[in-house]
Amino acid sequence: MTKLLLALAVAWFGWWLWQGPKRVHTSGKRPQGPASPPPDRADALGILGLGTGASDADIRAAHRRLLLAEHPDHGGSAELAQRVNAARDTLLKGDSPNP
């Protein structure tokens, strides 16, 4: 009987180690750093690499190009992705980002 209890304890401990530590956020959201203010129009154009006469289609294309290259899921920087998204939002001023 003790061998069975010992085997169960070892199995449970191995399973517990295999699962790894669980990090539960009480808010249900990922922790984020302080929010930076949105860029003005000139800064947003500079971030996206556009000129002053850029159309909405140009803004969306530049946003997509930069985000595909710098997305955090593909090894890019989360901070840069946030800046690119904020630049797009500033230039489109609440328009839907999807064509």
In a nutshell, what does this entry contain?
The chain is mainly α.
Based on the structure given, which CATH architecture of one domain is correct? Orthogonal Bundle
Basic shape: rod-shaped
The radius of gyration computed from the alpha-carbon positions, rounded to a whole number of angstroms, is 23 Å
**Could you tell me how far the N terminus lies from the C terminus, measured between alpha carbons in angstroms?**
67 Å
Instruction: Report the CATH superfamily of one domain.
Output: DnaJ domain
* The CATH C-level class name of one domain: Mainly Alpha
Give the tally of β-strands. 0
The H-and-E topology, N to C, reads as HHHH
**Low-confidence segments:** none
- Assign a percent range to the helix content: 55-70%
Q: What is the makeup of the main sheet?
A: none
Tally of DSSP helical segments: 4
* Mean of pLDDT: 81
Q: What class do helices, strands and sheet pairing give?
A: mainly alpha
Task: Chart the SSEs and their pairings.
Layout: H1 2-19, H2 41-48, H3 56-70, H4 78-92
Description:
The protein has 99 residues and is an all-alpha fold. It has a domain of 56 residues: Helix Hairpins (Orthogonal Bundle), CATH 1.10.287.110. Helix content is 57%, strand content 0%. It has four helices and no strands. Helix 2 packs across helix 4 and helix 3 runs antiparallel to helix 4. The longest helix is centred in the first third of the chain and has 18 residues. It is rod-shaped. The model has no long low-confidence stretch (mean pLDDT 81).
